[in-house]
Fold this sequence. Notes:
- The protein has 334 residues and is of the alpha/beta class.
- It has helices spanning 36-40, 47-69, 88-105, 114-120, 164-174, 182-189, 212-227, 234-259, 275-287, 297-300, 305-316, and strands at residues 5-10, 15-22, 26-34, 78-84, 109-113, 132-137, 142-147, 154-158, 264-268, 291-293.
- Strand 7 and strand 8 (154-158) form a beta hairpin.
- Helix 5 (164-174) runs parallel beside helix 7 (212-227) and helix 8 (234-259) runs parallel beside helix 9.
- The mean pLDDT is 95.
- Bound molecules: 5'-O-[(R)-(carboxyoxy)(hydroxy)phosphoryl]adenosine (KG4) and zinc ion.
- Zinc ion (ZN) is lined by residues 114, 118, 138, 269-270, 302.
Amino acid sequence: MxxxxxxxxxxxxxxxxxxxxxxxxEEIGTVVLSQMDTHASFGGVVPEIASRxxxxxxxxxxxxxxxxxDMTMDKIDAIxxxxxxxxxGSLLVGLQAAKTLALIYNKPLIPVHxxxxxxxxxxxxxxxxxxLIALVVSGGHTDIIYMKDHYSFEKIGGTLDDAVGEAYDKVxxxxxxNYPGGPLVDKLAHMGEDTYDLPIPLNDESYNFSFxxxxxxxxxxxxxxTQRGNKIIVENLAASFQNRVVGILVHKTIKAMKEYKVNxxxxxxxxxxxxxxxxxxTKVCKQNNYNITIPEIKYxxxxxxxxxxxxxxxxxxxxxxxxxxxxxxxxxxx
Length: 334
Ligand code: KG4
Ligand code: ZN
């Protein structure tokens, strides 16, 4: 079969990214332009600034990606783009660029759901084996998804309030750390010990998660100790928080693997960069003889290579779109 080269665009949040991916599994070249430094001073992503920066950078990033991959547009077979979910203004910029390329160069346009992208980041690492359970943990999502085949997504649980990355970022702010705080809390957690009495979040029979209670417990504890004139040991508080979060994520994921009689696990999304999660879930999978794939860190956080990988499989299922494709701030993964 002829090789298929997809040029993919991702702009759902604060990364402008373009990638060229061959046959859904090989990254030819990727450029990720992060706006993190700009948003850090505001303590979070400012949507208006994000979309303006995407506009300023998108054509430069497309050009740089083609140069990096040593490709020209005539070698590209299709254009893929994240249509949602995400920040609407940010999504629109990537979408407009993708539609323009598809129109000018007469290429098919493949719409990709952002979470499908995170899941398919795994196919850049290893061929995906089905059935599988995907644990998707990011700044916007915390989902356990059962997949019996490509593009068959059955969500069996998800967060009822904050996404896990969001909880990390909020706890980081209370601890006086910069945005995005997830990686910093992770780092501190490895320097401390689990000494604080924090609740296990939503420790029930369901596959759902709830992190807002745990987040509030950290905030209250921090305020109470400060009022009493006691010093918080941030490393220990980070370690205690991380242990509760990682513990429940791993517990419910393994429970799902058992109930759905699945041997293959993939972990996806920005929080899969978390060292505590990677260590514990790998250890427990080994104990249970489960296969586990976690992408390299560069494929965990937002990037267009994962969109190019997902698009290849979407295309095989006939998922192409006309040029009136619209951006969606929220949309069900299907
Ligand atoms: O997938 P992603 O890049 O963007 C979304 O689609 O949301 O995930 C970003 C989230 C942020 O909340 C960030 O704090 C979190 O992932 N994150 C981490 C780590 N690295 C990134 N959270 C905990 N530990 C980490 N090492
Ligand atoms: Zn993401």
